[in-house]
Amino acid sequence: MAPRSRQRRHKKPPSSVAPMVVTPSTVVTPVPLTLSKPDPSIDALGFFSLENNVPGLSQLILQKLSMKSYEEYKLVLDGGASVSGFGFRCPQEMFQKMEDTFRFCAHCRALPSGLSDSKVLRQCKRCRNVYYCGPECQRSDWPAHRKVCQELRLVAVDRLMEWLLVTGAFVLPSGPWPCLAETVQSWDTWFSMRHLQLDATLDAVLGSHAMTTLWASVGRPRPDPDVLQGSLKRLLTDALSRPLTLGLGLRALGINVGKIGGSTVHVVGASHVETFLTRPEDYDELGYMFPGHLGLRVIMVGIDVSAGFTQNPSPPILEPGTVQLSGHRGLYHDFWEEEVETGRIAHPDLVVTFHPGFHASPDLMEAWLPTLLLLRDYEIPTLITVYSHQELAASLQILVDLDTNITAYGANPFASLKPEQAYSNPNKQPVYCNAYYIIFLGSSCQLDRRQLEEKVDGGV
Ligand SMILES: [Zn+2]
Ligand SMILES: [Zn+2]
């Protein structure tokens, strides 16, 4: 049977919609600077939507990055210009400019340039995250802000600490798991399995020169060691959430990783988030999850895959025990036709898409539809992740309407534990990457939609 997606294959989404790019409704964190991998919504749509909440903010960000335009900024993410292109002279300047991009009144949205001479923006002393133009705004904002102040305090520490990942001062623990892999089913068991190694790693980072430089550069006192350790652990879950979520999918679907030549996972709709500054060893943990596997091939496919990523060819036969990362720039249904159907690239044993966001707007839904139908009609085991319970419910509804056969969904035991702030709307409840997952396989008209809704509403 010809997949229904074929009928739509010429209908490519307009490029301005940034198809296949993470555009969640909730998270807009456009300021990775040189510090870290970009957070979600780095695409133009997310970037310019900042203006709706805080007029002038996107220009302020570009100015602080010494960039003339969003295009120039994106060129860096695409791998077309060096990261050092941001041109900071020293860590102090970098951290200062990064902090400046958060400097707008959380209540009236005034930017520093819009304030009268006598006024300055002052931080909320509790979270050191949001700013106010004066006591009136702070007071009026408190009923809303108090609900998120504590969580935003963590965000403010994490966004500084991410620098340690980029400088290499914080290296994630690695090496085969010292226990039966099946016993590691969540972060709790992961942390207890890695605890000896992790304690040593965390001590080393806390005592590192980079940590000293960081807190000498940011203009705020160094927090207590337990606060810093908590932050490092959150960053670690954030970095490992993606590889371990792939493992969750392989496990949940009972996919055989003992296939000669290797098993293949396509990460569909991959963008800078998955590919900018990503190193091959970042996915080693996925391999350790399946001791004895005969090779795991992870192929990132999306129109915003960073340029450097596309150059690694994926060998047809993998060595047992190796995890191989590669990328392909383009739309998935084109990739399917040109690479998978022709046999040039391995057929996927699993497809994963992180935060596709198709629930968020009709444009994104239109962009995703050919891919969703292809995955359904070819009966490709598929796992998608979403940021929140609300997005889970909306996404399930859409997948039910598309007659996909949903085999599992729920809270992801390997969700990132790092809160994500809605950048230009800081009082919005923070969300977590890969918080929930949905797995579907093929098509089904059997599902009772009402039952599904009830299950979701009742919590998962
Ligand atoms: Zn104000
Ligand atoms: Zn606060």
TrEMBL record:
Q: Where is the MYND-type domain?
A: 105-149
Q: Which keywords are on file for this protein?
A: Metal-binding, Zinc, Zinc-finger
**Region described as Disordered: spans on this chain:** 1-20
List, in alphabetical order, the Gene Ontology terms for molecular function in this entry: zinc ion binding
Q: Which gene encodes it?
A: MSS51
Annotated Basic residues bias: 1-13
On whether Isomerase is a keyword of this UniProt record, the answer is: no
Q: Which Pfam families match?
A: MSS51_C, zf-MYND
- Which spans of this chain does the record mark as coiled coil? none
Organism (species)? Panthera pardus
Q: What is the protein named?
A: MYND-type domain-containing protein
Q: Is-annotated flag, keyword ATP-binding?
A: no
SUPFAM superfamilies attached here? Answer: HIT/MYND zinc finger-like
